[in-house]
Amino acid sequence: MSGPSTPPPPPELSITQLLPNMLTIAAVCAGVSAIRFGVHGNYVLAVQLILAAAVLDGLDGRLARALDSQSKVGAELDSLADFVNFGVAPPLVVYFWGLQSMPNIGWLAVLVFAVCCVVRLARFNVASNSESAPADNRFFTGIPSPAGALLVMLPLYLSFAVADQRILPSWMICLYMAVIGALMISKIPTWSFKAQKIPRERVRYFFVGFALLGAALLTFTWVSLAMLCVAYVAIVIVALVNEKRRKTQED
Questions:
Q1: For a surface tag, which of 43, 149, 154, 247 has the fewest beta carbons within 10 Å of its beta carbon?
Q2: How many Å apart are CA 192 and CA 176, to the nearest integer?
Q3: Of 172, 129, 49, 144, residue with least CA distance to 87
Q4: Please, what are the domains in the chain?
Q5: pLDDT along the chain (251 residues), means of 10
């Protein structure tokens, strides 16, 4: 006798069940449009669209879990969207903005970043589908692709903050882009915000801090984004030092 067969999927889906995938597709549209506006020289709008894609990327998975509408198609769509939005659009916008004075080396930096991003996403997908995935979800292995995309655009934030005056030379931007790409495929343990728990007695302070952060991003957008990038790098360094110290104590 054959075992119980898997019930066929329902012939119809509600709009609510499709919302997570709709957000993912909207994020892809934002990322591809960012490339278009980068080509046309509208770098501020291009960066804003990539930031919008990052927000949508953070919402689609949580919405799918909340609605219990996860699917294999949705997971694959999300991974492909991540590559477009975080592995292709950001380095291209940076290239159009500040690397065309040295096109060969600049394009090489773009390729390095894009390849590192796709390798990082492939490694993440394999680890997520593996039955032997690590139980400790406090850390990512390497910098996540959305964080890498936000970090690689730091030269643009600094430029926008000082009235479109470029601070870093092109060769340094190329080197910086390659370093961020290498960090994405590194084995560095990166703190995961998803696993952070807020004690009940501190929730009100968290809300106040979140409101202040939102106000800062709306009022001093580019300075705030630059400071967030610096703070994130500092958190990565602190997490790395603490992890090495913990392993040393265990040995």
A1: 247
A2: 23
A3: 144
A4: 15-129+136-250 (1.20.120.1760)
A5: 55 68 89 95 94 87 72 79 93 93 92 94 78 59 89 92 80 94 86 71 83 88 91 82 73 64
